[in-house]
Write a structure and sequence with these properties.
Layout: E1 2-3, E2 11-12, E3 18-22, H1 26-38, E4 43-47, H2 53-59, E5 64-68, H3 76-87, E6 94-98, H4 103-112, E7 116-119, H5 124-138
Parallel strand pairs: 3-4, 3-5, 5-6, 6-7
Antiparallel strand pairs: 1-2
Helix pairs in contact: 3-4
């Protein structure tokens, strides 16, 4: 299904894709959702509590998790490790959002199986390109 606005490139809609964004900052959640909605992703779920991610993965057929690296309740690396232990191969691809430029975090996340990193502040075009590439390779 295509959607076109005057003078803009058509947006390809992705009605079967479900994306969960986990970030403790509401502004980041709303901005990421707006970027994804603008890219045709309408099934975008927002969660600010990292302790509820397992509930989401058990109740909704999530295709991609976008996970903040630095959260006060639980850092993204620890959460990712717990999710890998709990869900194994059933865990959907994970992309990390980060404002950190510390390569040690990236190395740990890659070792656990992270598919990509999106640096804050994020750019909509780069974010959508990264997500599209990961989702296309997962099918």
């Amino acid at each position: 299904m295509m959607n076109a606005s005057a003078g803009k490139r058509p947006i390809v809609e992705h009605p079967l894709v479900h994306i969960l964004i986990v970030d403790d900052i509401q502004t980041n959640l709303r901005l990421a959702k707006a970027f994804l909605n603008g890219g045709g992703y309408q099934n975008v779920y927002l969660e600010s509590d990292p302790f509820r991610v397992s509930e989401w993965l058990n109740s909704v057929d999530i295709n991609l998790v976008i996970l903040d690296l630095s959260m006060p309740q639980k850092d993204g690396i620890s959460l990712f490790g717990e999710l890998k232990s709990e869900f194994g191969e059933r865990l959907p691809p994970v992309i990390f959002l980060t404002a950190l430029h510390d390569d040690s975090w990236r190395a740990q996340a890659i070792e656990l199986g992270a598919k990509a990193f999106i640096t804050k502040p994020f750019d909509q075009t780069k974010m959508l390109s990264c997500i599209n590439e990961i989702l296309n390779s997962a099918t």
